[in-house]
Specification:
- By secondary structure, this protein is an alpha+beta fold.
- It contains six helices and eight strands.
- It is elongated, with a radius of gyration of 20 Å.
Length: about 230
C-alpha cells in the first residue's frame, strides 16, 4: 500500500492542529485507523473547508507514505455530516467517548471493518433512545468487539445476587468480587427492554464502570463526568 493512492471511507475520530494552517485528522476506516496530514486546511481558499469535521463519514483519497504513520490527504468528501449531534450536547459527549475508545482499541487491518460498522451505526440518529441506554449498548458492544465481554454464564437467576469476579471476568471466581443481580445483567443485555427500570440501568452502568477499570486503561474521571451528563 505504501506509495499508493488509497480510496476508502473514514469516520473522523479526532482533529488536532499541525501548524497554524494545517491539521492532523485521525480516521477510522474499514482497514484500520489512519492519520492524515491536511496541509492548508484552515486557509480561506482551502479545498478542505467544510469537507470534514468530528464524526463526519467521508469518502477519502490519501497518499500512503512509505515511512511513518502520517499520510497525505488528497481529497475528503462528506457522506454523513451527523448534523443531529450539533444540537444535542449529550449525544455529542457520547460520540466523543465512543470515538476515543475506538481510536485506542480498534485493531489494525481488515479486523477493523466490524468496528467501523459498529461506530457508524452508533453515530446514527437515535432520537427515541435514552442516552443511558446508548451508553450501555456502546460499552457492551465495544467489550464484545475487543473480546473482553463479561461472562455471565454462571449467573444463578434464582438467587438475588451472584458473586462476580471483576478481575476474572466471570461469575464465582476472582480476587475482586462484587454482587451481581440478575436484573442488572438483564439491563446490560437488553437496556432497551420495556421492563428495565432506570435504577437497573444505573446499576448496569456502575458495574460496567468497575469492570472497565480492570480491563481497559482509561482515565476514570472522564467516564464519571460522562455518566453524570447522560443520567440527568
Amino acid at each position: 500500500m505504501a506509495g499508493e493512492i488509497v480510496k476508502t471511507r473514514g469516520i473522523v475520530l479526532s482533529i488536532r492542529p499541525w501548524s497554524r494552517t494545517s491539521h492532523v485528522v485521525t480516521w477510522l476506516t474499514p482497514h484500520g485507523t489512519v492519520a492524515t496530514l491536511v496541509k492548508g486546511a484552515v486557509r480561506p481558499k482551502s479545498a478542505f473547508l467544510g469537507q470534514y469535521d468530528l464524526f463526519y463519514l467521508c469518502d477519502l483519497l490519501y497518499y500512503a507514505r512509505a515511512s511513518g504513520d502520517l499520510h497525505a490527504l488528497r481529497e475528503a468528501s462528506p457522506v454523513e455530516l451527523r448534523e443531529h449531534l450539533r444540537g444535542d450536547w449529550r449525544a455529542t459527549a457520547l460520540a466523543g467517548y465512543a470515538a476515543d475508545l475506538v481510536r485506542d482499541f480498534a485493531p489494525p487491518g481488515s479486523e477493523s471493518a466490524v468496528w467501523f460498522d459498529f461506530l457508524d451505526a452508533f453515530l446514527a440518529p437515535a432520537p427515541d433512545v435514552p442516552h443511558l441506554t446508548r451508553l450501555i449498548r456502546l460499552e457492551m458492544g465495544l467489550l464484545e468487539l475487543a473480546g473482553l465481554a463479561p461472562d455471565f454464564s454462571g449467573l444463578d437467576s434464582r438467587e438475588p445476587w451472584t458473586p462476580f469476579g471483576l478481575d476474572s471476568g466471570r461469575c464465582g471466581a476472582g480476587e475482586r468480587i462484587v454482587r451481581l443481580a440478575p436484573r442488572t445483567v438483564a439491563a446490560m443485555r437488553r437496556p432497551d427492554a420495556p421492563d428495565v427500570s432506570l435504577d437497573e440501568k444505573k446499576d448496569a452502568v456502575r458495574f460496567l464502570g468497575a469492570f472497565l477499570s480492570y480491563h481497559i486503561e482509561r482515565p476514570p474521571d472522564v467516564r464519571r463526568t460522562l455518566v453524570r451528563l447522560v443520567v440527568t
